[in-house]
Amino acid sequence: MLKFTPNIKNFSLLGVNKATKDQDRVKTEIVNNLCLIAMIGWVFNNLVINFLDGKYFDILVAVPLFISFFLPLYLNKVNKTHLSRLVLILSVSISLGSMYMAVGPRNYYEFLFILLFILILYLIDERRAQVILAFFVFLTWAIPYVYTKNYEPILGYSQKSGVVEVVFLCSMIAIYLISKK
Prior knowledge:
Layout: H1 4-12, H2 22-52, H3 56-77, H4 81-103, H5 110-123, H6 127-150, H7 163-180
């Protein structure tokens, strides 16, 4: 356990070097920690709960969300920290919108869309970029919402096991991380 803690600390410092400004360092750490928490939650929910329940299709549907949390970490590793923030918001909103349209509104993805709006305000400095990203995130929520109100979801309604709990927990931890920085 003692060797695991420094590795987590190093993991949260991906993309941070001596030349990184304090404000950018904090934002990069938040992106790294948020992605780590989300990936751990994804692995627990999908590989432990859904795999043991034999819900292999639910795992497959959620793979794009896992990838959308992996991409910002890779970009931070190659010191593209500003791009990683944009990719986090864009890819997560597209993944969530796709999942919403595919399986319907019963999985309460709204928690994560609210978190994305908070992340836009905190991680993006330029006001114009904030407005454009907020509009994009709104569209990735609104289009699937309207679609599933008028039509059945593409893959039919389903309740993914553990989604509400994992999403709520990750959202609360992310808001805590933002408020502590």
